[in-house]
Design goal:
The complex is a heterodimer of chains A (about 240) and B (about 300). Chain A has about 240 residues and is mostly helical. Chain A has helices at about 5-35, 60-85, 90-115, 135-155, 165-190, 210-220, and strands spanning about 55, 225. In chain A, about 60% of the residues lie in helices and about 0% in strands. The radius of gyration of chain B is 22 Å and the shape is globular. Chain B has eleven helices and two strands, in the order H-H-H-H-H-H-H-H-H-E-E-H-H. Chain B has helices at about 5-15, 15-20, 25-30, 35-55, 65-90, 95-120, 155-180, 180-190, 190-215, 270-275, 280-290, and strands at about 250, 255. Classes of the chains: A mainly alpha (about 240), B mainly alpha (about 300). The interface between A and B is large, with 61 and 67 residues.
């Protein structure tokens, strides 16, 4: 079975993350010092995280909730655009489903915003230039990518949450994202709701992804890039 | 099962293992000097009891193994159900539906059974065996409220939907319990907490994909859309208990209907309930299933 290799892989990730955490702290200190020094000298060292990005901040529940907030902002913005400029040939059933999903994602966004309060990251600016909103295929492919990525993100970050109630809330949201994902996938190809690209065929587990893997994908749709220095994702 | 290897494995990651089971330390260390075949034969049970004691949580929180065995029981029910349906062939399930939906779901549930048994075994514990099921929900009478479940496709679909939605809710209900076992799990094996929680969340997501798809097949919303008073949107009042609590609109202490929506300054109950799936506790799930689908 896979468990052993999965565990050793996860352990390697843990070790690397710990290392990066320390490395990140080190570089940040150097960066601060360099900034101070640059008042006098013309040395420029790239700050970490890069200028103009939003970092999830110190590790802990606040960072994980902001991570979820960032993804929900992206999804909400996407479906707002989809429903504002429906693709050609959209059916009434599709309009109804996509409108429902839009409303779910807007509520998820508003929920995290309210829950995080003053600790929330700022509003992100999406970049959907790679999506052709008049094309059904383009819109549904992007929707499937957002939903599948959302599921892998929640599944992969769940273990980082330390407050029991937050873990349950994340669980309440991830299954709704999985319901969305299954619907969108079936709209593209009937019977693909749990296809082998998202659910492995040996153990039938949904894929899960690290914060670094997810943000790399999310940032391709964001003008405001999000980094997670403390989770091993400092560059965009 | 090689008991000595298990102890060594645990010692590798938890040098304190002998300390945790201090009162039995001499028994473990002198295990080979027992000399009695009877005592050796009884060891698997003794070791199980020792582990249970050494890594036990407060009685209100089930252990990781107990949670995994509970999940396994639910997967046995689902796999038994789908395998029984598949055995009926096109007499029950239209060929197109089998290809587009049931073959995939049946394979997933059977895989979950195999996976959970392997995980439980790898932890040195014993997977529970499958209980006796009555798919008509008749507690072994075979004449329960869903008595035509294997002859009437619509009943089969309805029961499938309830099983999948309940499966999602049952897994969700265990996330906090797995978190409560974090220290104990890490004590058994480094990284075990992450592995078990991530696996549970991953199965949970797969059940949600199934639930979404079967709801679409039945012409329902892929998500559970409740009213202010009733969580159950299936139209089958018999399964109200399976959806009990889905009508909740308070998340993290916030009434989410007071949050702004696309259309205005508040959110409708239907959107608020559909956007969040609610958990079911182990007690709730067992109360629903025992004496109906699970023969008591």
């Amino acid at each position: 079975m896979k468990t052993d290799s999965q565990e050793s892989m996860l352990n390697a990730n843990m070790a690397r993350r710990s290392f990066l955490r320390y490395a990140g702290v080190g570089v940040a200190s150097v960066g601060l010092l360099a900034t101070a020094a640059s008042c006098h000298k013309d040395h420029k060292i790239t700050p970490n995280p890069p200028a103009g990005t939003i970092d999830l901040g110190a590790s802990g529940d606040l960072a994980i909730l902001n991570y979820a907030y960032a993804l929900e902002q992206l999804e909400a913005a996407f479906y707002l655009q989809v429903t504002a400029t429906p693709y050609s040939g959209i059916t009434s059933a599709e309009t109804s489903m996509l409108t429902d999903i839009r409303d779910h994602e807007v509520l998820h966004r508003e929920f995290f915003k309210a829950a995080l309060g003053a600790g929330a990251i700022s509003s992100l600016t999406p970049d959907f230039s790679s999506i052709n909103f008049s094309s059904r295929a383009s819109v549904l492919a992007a929707a499937a990518a957002f939903e599948d990525t959302g599921v892998t993100a929640y599944d992969g970050a769940g273990y980082l949450i330390t407050t029991p109630a937050y873990l349950t809330i994340a669980g309440k949201i991830v299954s709704v994202e999985a319901r969305h994902a299954a619907l969108i996938r079936d709209l593209i190809t009937p019977g693909s709701f749990a296809g082998p690209d998202v659910v492995d065929t040996t153990n039938s587990l949904n894929a899960s992804a690290s914060i670094a893997q997810v943000l790399k994908i999310a940032n391709t749709y964001l003008k405001t890039k999000v980094t997670a220095v403390n989770y091993g994702y400092a560059s965009v | 099962m090689n008991l000595f290897n298990i102890i060594e494995e645990i010692e590798n990651v938890d040098p304190e293992v002998y300390g945790r089971i201090s009162e039995r330390r001499d028994v473990i260390k002198n295990i080979t000097s027992f000399g009695s075949k009877v005592a050796l034969a009884a060891m698997p049970f003794a070791v199980g009891a020792i582990f249970k004691k050494a890594y036990a949580q407060s009685s209100s929180t089930p252990s990781v193994v107990a949670i995994l065995n509970y999940a396994l029981t639910l997967e046995y029910l689902e796999s038994t159900f789908y395998n029984a349906g598949a055995a009926k062939g096109t007499a029950l399930i239209p060929a197109a539906a089998a290809t587009n939906y049931f073959n995939q779901v049946t394979r997933d549930e059977n895989n979950h059974v195999t996976f959970l048994k392997a995980v439980i075994t790898s932890l040195g514990a014993t997977p529970v065996s499958a209980p006796q099921f009555d798919l008509t929900a008749g507690n072994n009478q075979g004449n329960g409220p869903f008595k035509d479940v294997l002859t009437n496709y619509q009943t089969f679909l309805a029961v499938a939907q309830v099983f999948e939605d309940t499966g999602v809710r049952a897994y969700k209900g265990q996330a906090e319990n797995i978190l409560a076992n974090k220290a104990a799990a890490e004590g058994v094996k480094a990284g075990l907490y992450q592995t078990v929680l991530t696996a549970a969340l991953s199965i949970h997501a797969v059940e949600a994909r199934h639930a979404s798809a079967i709801r679409s097949i039945r012409g329902q919303n892929p998500w559970i859309t409740s009213t202010a008073t009733v969580g159950n949107d299936t139209g089958i009042s018999l399964v109200n208990a399976n959806y009990d609590g889905e009508q909740n609109v308070t998340q993290g202490g916030v009434d989410v209907t007071t949050l702004k929506s696309f259309a205005g300054s508040t959110t409708s109950v239907s959107i608020a309930t559909a956007a969040f799936d609610e958990p079911l506790s182990m007690t709730q799930v067992l109360a629903i299933l025992q004496g109906s689908f699970i023969v008591k």
